[in-house]
Amino acid sequence: MTDHEPDAEGAGTVTFVNTFTVHAEPEVFEKEFARTSEFMARQPGFVRHTLSQHAERPGEYVNVAEWRDLAAFRAAVSHTDFAPHAGALRALAESRPELYAARLHRAAAAAPRRDAT
Predict the structure, then answer these.
(1) Predicted TM-score (pTM) of this structure
(2) By 3-state DSSP, what share of the chain in percent is helix, strand and coil, each rounded to 5?
(3) Local structure of residue 109 (DSSP, 8 states)
């Protein structure tokens, strides 16, 4: 795929982006988030996620998660076992969740190979 083509390979995938402003100790939030991460990783359609802490403001985080499709994401957050996870995170932080549809994908170019001569 070139860098100008829509993400045909990932058609249907959604990216969930959730920013957090934490009002608890960062370590407490991270520990609770890890529990939620374990739950989500077991859900059908979950691909991967990354939780990142702001480099200069330790109380700010962003979670970026990829899901196979919107239906899989909605099923995971509608699961009855998800409610306690959501409640625990809401007790520690304010969040702003957003969903995005994949449109373009580009990977780093491979470095040129050097021949051993």
Answers:
(1) 0.81
(2) 30, 30, 40
(3) P
Other beta carbons less than 10 A from residue 61's beta carbon: 21
- Which tokens hold the place of 107? 């990977």
Q: Which amino acid is at 60?
A: E
Q: Show pLDDT as tens, one digit a residue, over the chain (117 residues).
A: 334 344 444 458 999 999 999 999 999 999 999 999 999 999 999 999 999 999 999 999 999 999 999 999 999 999 999 999 999 999 999 999 999 998 888 889 988 877 765
Contacts of residue 48, defined as CB under 8 A and 6 or more positions apart, other chains included, come to 65, 66
Treating both helix axes as pointing N-terminal to C-terminal, what angle do 26-41 and 83-92 enclose, rounded to 10 degrees? 160
